[in-house]
Amino acid sequence: MSAQDTLLAALRETARAARIDLVGVAPASRFQAVHPRRRPEAHLPGAQTVVVIAMRYPKALWELAGRTPAESYMSMSMADSMGMRTMVLLAALDLSRVIEDHGFDAIPMPIDSYRVHPYKDIPDSWHTPFDNDVAAAAAGLGELGLHGKLITPQFGTRQQYTSIVTNAPLPADAMYTGDPLCDGCGACVKACLMHAFSPDAVTDVPVGDRVFRVAKRDWWRCMWSQRFHLNAEMGPKLHGMNVTVDPPDGKITDDDVKNALRIKGEKGGMQTWYTYAMRECERACIPPHMRTQG
Ligand code: SF4
Predict the structure, then answer these.
(1) Which amino acid residue places its CA nearest to atom 7 of ligand 1?
(2) Confidence class of residue 292 from pLDDT cuts 50, 70 and 90?
(3) pTM of the full predicted structure?
């Protein structure tokens, strides 16, 4: 067995021991459409490979959160804020150390860590330092949906995932070429009560030799609910916090968010500190081959 295959086997075994469900390997060359400051080599000079790992959410937790007589998102909130991200990041640290034990360098990438404003030559608001969705598609785990998030044939959107950037030359996985996982049904767009998606403003996102069509997302509108929990219907009302502060039409600013949070705090009381907002665009996304399954 070659040194590369030995390392890959050690990585897959470490991932399996960490209860990781999916592992994929992408060459750095498949990130051609990603901003240079967000590419693998921007994080690790000499990067050659990106290893992507994904862990599924328990099916009942994901599908039933907030939809049973308990009317509770608290298990989902705990899983999201304390469980899933932590377990996936700890696994990424483990894999990085295994790569180091084999004589190479590796850096695990963060999950859902954002710069709110454009940064130097990166023009986008709410951008992450590394694109785990492009990485997952590049590593053959699945496709990018209209919502821009990963869809896998095994779990649809029901997974948490991150990447490990390394200068180890590992054999890459082929990109996904199965039946389409996104058929443009639009359920994701309809499920977003913030109207953050512009389904008519679709961008082509090249990844390796594939191109994915992704709808423009107004991240300020998205985070108005996702990060600041300012729309009670998207989850907080099931924590008993019934305050919704609508965003202004047009461009949203820091001051708009600060004012809205002040209003929410005044009207919502102590519960404003303990709420959760479900990613309904992702939960509404059921790939075609899964739609008949219960
Ligand atoms: S909900 Fe439909 S349109 Fe949206 S990503 Fe999923 S399959 Fe594509």
Answers:
(1) 182
(2) confident
(3) 0.96
